[in-house]
Amino acid sequence: MRKLFQNLSRRKSATALLADYERDGNIHGTDLVRTLRLKDLVSFGIAAIIGAGIFSTIGNASAAGGPGVSLLFIFTAIACGFSALCYAQFASTIPVSGSAYTYAYASFGELVAWIIGWDLLMEYAIGNIAVAISWSDYFTAVLQGVGLGIPEYLTMDFLSASRGYDAALKLLAQGQTMSQLPGNMQEAFLAWQQAPSIGGIKLVADVPALGITVLITYLVYIGIKESKRTANFLVLLKLLVILLVITVGALYVSPTNWTPFAPNGLAGIMKGVSAVFFAYIGFDAISTTAEECENPQRDLPRAMIFALVICTVLYVILALILTGMVPFQELAVGDPLAYVFSRVNLDVIAGIVAVSAIVAMASVLLVFQYGQPRIWMTMSRDGLLPGIFSRIHPKYRTPSFATLVTGFVVAVPALFMNLTEVTDLTSIGTLFAFVLVCGGILLLEEKQKVATAAHKGFRVPYINGKYTLPLLVLLGAVLLFVYNRPELSAFFSLEGGWGAIQHKLPMLGFLLVTTVLTVLTVTRNLSLIPVLGLLTNLYLMTELGITNWSRFLAWLMLGLIIYFAYGYRNSKLHKPEATATIHAP
User: Fold this and answer.
1) Distance separating alpha carbons of residues 153 and 456, to the nearest angstrom
2) Going by C-beta distance under 8 Å and a sequence separation of 6 or more, which residues neighbour residue 32?
3) Mean pLDDT along residues 86-107
4) Which residue has better confidence, 337 or 12?
5) Where does it live in the cell (predicted)?
6) Which of 444, 375, 445, 372 lies closest to 411, judged by CA?
7) Domain boundaries along the sequence of the chain
8) Which is more confident, 408 or 184?
């Protein structure tokens, strides 16, 4: 048992990871040229963050929380800020590909590295599914605007059509007319009603989402990617459109729409966690550029913070503009920015927004679809996945098999899944990655104090949390007791049996972790910033509900089965001769 634990926690030091990269670089064709500077990194971060989140999921978040969702963007940005500092230290210490997977290998060990790598595969794949679905919504709207409408059953996913049809039937049975139904419910009803069927199964699928995924996968396969000049141009285009939305939209804001500011209370605001946090998943992508930075130790930390601040300001202003232009209840649509301008009869602006969204989200899809195969490839190099995943195409110099697999796992679900399903899973996966990165910094501080003290790159500023964290925890408890006493009483009530208790499990786990971490912070003088990053991200995970936790844990269990069936025995660190080579000075 002791040997098993040692094997599961075997780590690669930063020195070993760098040596491994330098030794394997020419073999695998990933010895990238370091050309990215600070402005390019900031541009890359904005390009990755401003995508489906700002053009799509911001609508769902605003519909759930009203104007008060702007506060959630700020809180989420703070949680990301703590994580950004932790990412920055890892990126400056280990400037190689692999992102959180590589960082976990250096801090927690192989088993946790596998878990986070498996989690990243889900995060990137499902994030791309969401981007493809959002792209389809805007693309369909543009076609309809020029008179080239596509049948609803070819532009809507199976789940949305089925659920919308059932909901419409209930309302129609209660005496409502078709014209009284919400627009998205009407579309779902028509899609399900008009769709052809085979063997009683309705043929409803989001064909445009499939088409863009196939096209992007093809581009990635043959090695075409955005140059920094193209990325800068696309960011400029996005920012100009967003400034247009803010400037023109501000003229149509009705302050009465901001009252009440939080119509559904704190619960309504926090209901938008998955939609809001999905907006920030691109933040993780900045760390994947470490191998291409001229000075990652200096520029990566700055770029992460700058991109985060810029995007947060834009999200907050846009949330206020959207909820000020129309009642927040109307924003539960796939294309909220275009919708609000159509709502106030500014169809030209709506068309400009829709066209720019097509370009913006296609570029985001390209960035992430290009990055995910590199995670497969990195895990394959370490022996945790079959070698075919790190196979490099002799002509295009891309991980060809991994790219095709990535295209398949994005294209097929995009046909049938809806935006809510995928954003929830993406958000919980991203938050989990952030939790482990913050935890990894804490672990490195404990295990490698000498190494981190000698480290000349960026380090998370050390603030002793011995006194601050207990005060923050106490303040949070007091605020809950004063302002949410009924909800607090209901939470600790045992009424409702297991059906009610299971939904409290994530929060109970958070309270347990908070207690343990507070004790450790007091007794071991832990650094405050990574502790706060870990706790804030873990708290956001609790808001995603037991259903998403169940799906997430099921995915991780599948990953563990694959790891023990293949990765554990085939890991390079499992082989003595390889281990000696990897850890050689």
Assistant:
1) 57
2) 291, 292
3) 76
4) 337
5) Membrane
6) 372
7) 2-145+222-462, 158-204
8) 408
- Encoding tokens for residue 97? 């590909």
User: How far is the C-alpha of 69 from the C-alpha of 320, rounded, in Å?
Assistant: 9
Name the 3-class secondary structure at 198: strand
Please give the biggest Cα pair distance in the chain. 77
Hey, what amino acid is at 136? Answer: S
Collapsing DSSP to helix, strand or coil, 392 comes out as strand
Residues 513, 535 contacting (CB under 8 angstroms): yes
Q: Nearest 5°: phi and psi at 466?
A: -55, -40
Coil, helix or strand at residue 293: strand
State residue 420's pLDDT score.
63
Identify the residue whose tokens are 């503009």: 321
pLDDT greater than 60 at residue 518:
yes
Give the chain's mean pLDDT. 77
Give the pLDDT of residue 448. Answer: 52
User: Is residue 114 a contact partner of residue 559, using CB atoms and an 8 Å limit?
Assistant: yes
Q: Sign of the C-alpha dihedral, residues 303, 307, 310, 316?
A: negative
Report the alpha-carbon angle 375-109-114, nearest 5. Answer: 35
Cβ atoms of 125 and 33 closer than 8 Å: no
Rg (CA), the chain: 24
CATH superfamily of 2-145+222-462: Amino acid/polyamine transporter I (1.20.1740.10)
User: Which of 536, 511, 530, 538 minimizes the C-alpha distance to 446?
Assistant: 530
Q: Which of 125, 152, 130 is nearest to 140 (CA)?
A: 152
**Is residue 22 over pLDDT 60?**
no
Q: Beta-carbon neighbour count of residue 115 at 10 Å?
A: 19
* Measured CA angle at 492 (ends 491, 497), to 5 deg: 85
Three-class secondary structure assignment of 186-242: HHHHHHHHHCCEECCEECCCEHHHHHHHHHHHHHHHCCCCCCHHHHHHHHHHHHHHH
Is the pLDDT at 450 greater than 50? The verdict is no
- Buried-state track 468-483, b at ≥16 Cβ within 10 A, e below 16: ebeebbeeeeeeeeee
3-state secondary structure of 464: strand
Residue 100 or 421, more confident:
100
Q: Which amino acid is at 572?
A: K
- The angle subtended at Cα 421 by Cα 419 and Cα 423, nearest 5°, is 65
State how far the Cα of 440 lies from the Cα of 86, in Å rounded to an integer: 8
Question: In 10 A of CB 467, how many CB atoms?
Answer: 11
277 vs 519, higher pLDDT: 519
Residue 453 has pLDDT above 60, yes or no: no
Query: Which DSSP category does 326 fall into?
Result: S
Q: Choose among 299, 280, 279, 281: nearest CA to 289.
A: 299
C-alpha–C-alpha distance, residues 333 and 59, integer Å: 6
Q: Does the CA dihedral 274-276-277-280 come out positive or negative?
A: positive
Q: How far apart are CA 138 and CA 209, in angstroms?
A: 11
pTM for the structure as a whole: 0.77
Question: Six-digit token pair at 493?
Answer: 């009530």
User: What distance in Å separates the CA atoms of residue 321 and residue 255, rounded to the nearest whole number?
Assistant: 10
